[in-house]
Amino acid sequence: MTRRIGILQQKGGVGKTTNTINVAGALAARGLDVLAVDMDPQGYLTHRLGFEDAYASDPPSLYDALDSPGEHAVADLVVQHEEFDLLPANIDMFRLEQDLIASGMRPRMRLKQLLDDATEWDVIIIDAPPSLGPLNDNVVLATEEILVPVEADESSQLALNHLLRQLDTLEDNYGTRISILGVIVSNVAYPLDNEQQDAIEWFEERFEGRVPVWVVRSRAAIKRAMQDEVSVFGEDAEDTDMRDVYAEIAAEVAP
Ligand SMILES: Nc1ncnc2c1ncn2[C@@H]1O[C@H](COP(=O)(O)OP(=O)(O)OP(=O)(O)O)[C@@H](O)[C@H]1O
Ligand SMILES: [Mg+2]
After folding, report:
1. Domain encompassing residue 180
2. pLDDT tens digits for range 193-214
3. What is the CATH number of the domain that holds 221?
4. How far is the CA of 222 from the centre of ligand 1 (A)?
5. pTM of the predicted structure, to 2 decimals
6. Per the structure, how many domains does the chain have?
C-alpha cells in the first residue's frame, strides 16, 4: 500500500515546502521509494528542487492529469531528483482551480483519482498551496493523513483553528476520516520569547497530547541545502541537528 501524506496549512510561508523537501528526504534516507507532489500553482517545490524547466514545459503536465482524469499516468509526468521522485507543478495550474469548478465533475476528488493508480511508490508526500480552496481540498481528500506546519506565534493558532474547521467540513461532506499525523512548528529561533513559548504549549495542548508536535529550528544548513536543490539528507548537504528531527518525523509517519 502506498501511504499518502499531505503537508497542509493555508497560511503562507510557514514551512510547507521546506518540510515537504526534508520529510521526503528523510523518508528516502530510510530506504523508501518516495514521490513528492507539487500542488502549489506557484511551483516553489518544483523550483527549489531545480526543475524550473518542467514548470514551464508544454503539456501534458499535472494540470492536464487533474483536468482530464483517466487520460494520464503519474509515472509519465514524474521527474527524477537525486533523493526522490517529483511530480512537478506547471504554470498552467494557475487556471486549474477555476477549470475544476467549472467542469462540475467531482472537482475535489481529482488528485485522489489520479493517485489511486500510482502504486509504484512507498510514500507520496504532497506540498499544498497556501489557500483554503479546491486545490487544498484535493490534497486533503487524496491523503486523509496530514502534517501541519505552523509557526510559533498567535496567528498560526488562529490558522490552525480555521484549518481544523475546514477538515471537519470535508469529513462531513465526503463521509471520510482525516487524521492529523503531527504538527511541525517550523523555523523556530531560540531563545524563545514568551509568545513563542506559549504558542508551542498551545499546539501541544490543542490535541490533548494525542498528536506529536515537533520543533524544527531555524537553521542555515536547511536554507543552504535548499539552495543546493536537496534536503538536509542530500549527499553533499552539511550536517545539522535538524536531521534528527526529520528522521523522527519520518519514523512516525512511515514506521
Ligand atoms: N527550519 C528552517 N530554517 C531556515 N529557514 C527556514 C526554515 N523553515 C522555513 N524556512 C524559510 O522560510 C521561508 C518560507 O518557507 P516555505 O517556503 O517552506 O514556506 P511555505 O509554507 O511553503 O510558503 P508558501 O505558503 O509560500 O508556499 C523560506 O524562505 C524558507 O527557506
Ligand atoms: Mg510552499
Report:
1. 3-253
2. 999 999 999 999 999 889 999 9
3. 3.40.50.300
4. 10
5. 0.97
6. 1
